[in-house]
Each structure stands twice: as structure tokens, then as C-alpha cells.
Amino acid sequence: MNIFEALRQDHDIQRKLLEQLVDTSGDTSARDEIFKKLKTELEIHADAEERYFYKPLIDVDRTQDLARHGIAEHHEIDELIEQLEETDYSSSAWLKIAKDLQEKVEHHLEDEEHQFFQIAGKVFSDGNKTTLAKDYNKHMEDNR
Ligand SMILES: [Fe+2]
Ligand SMILES: [Fe+2]
To answer: Ranges for the Hemerythrin-like domain (predicted)?
Structure first.
């Protein structure tokens, strides 16, 4: 497995959880459960991805801007998660913010998969791609 396959696999988990999340309503255990799962998933992924994907890209001139952009989007995602935590599950605003989060994350995953992966593919050697995948997957396993 290379780093792109590893990241893509977890992006699909995020997409699925987001779909389930916007399908929940009110102060229910389903909403609580899915939100907590998604929050953990997004946070560990961002952390691992910054270490084993963006960090090596920041060190290279031609990918520095792209890496900074990606990391900035992680912060925007964090802010939406915080907003959700500060809002009551029973509030009508909750679903609206959850949909904003879905849109933001999906846009971010699109950027990563359709632009960043292509450029990073030219920067990393085959050996890099496999090693980064191993380190990324280990970090995910240890923290899930
Ligand atoms: Fe990301
Ligand atoms: Fe990602």
C-alpha cells in the first residue's frame, strides 16, 4: 500500500460517517455516537496526515504552498467541529453546521485526492510512498 491508498481509504470512512451524520436528527444517541466517531476519525487523520504527508511536502519548495493550504483547511474543519460541540444536539442550528462540515470536508478531500496527490506523486520516491503509508497506518491504529 502507498500513502495515497492509505489516505484515500480513511477519506472514504469520513465520507460515510458524514453522510450518516447529516441523516440524524435532534438529541439522539445516533447523533451523539456518529458525531463522536467522526470527530475522533477527523482529528487522528489530520494529525497523522500532517506528520506523514504534509510535513515532507512542506520541506520541498514546489509543494510548500500546497501543504500550507491543506493544513489551513484542517484548522477550518477543527473550528466547525468546535462549533458543533458548542451547539445543543436539539438545536435546529446543529444540522446546518453539520452540513457545512460535510461540505468543507468533502471539498478538502477532493483537493487532496485530485490535486495534491498528483503533485506529491512526483515528489515522493516509491520507497517514500510505502514508508509513509506504513507510518501513517501505524499512527492511525495506535490512536483509533
Ligand atoms: Fe487533510
Ligand atoms: Fe486527508
So the answer is: 3-119
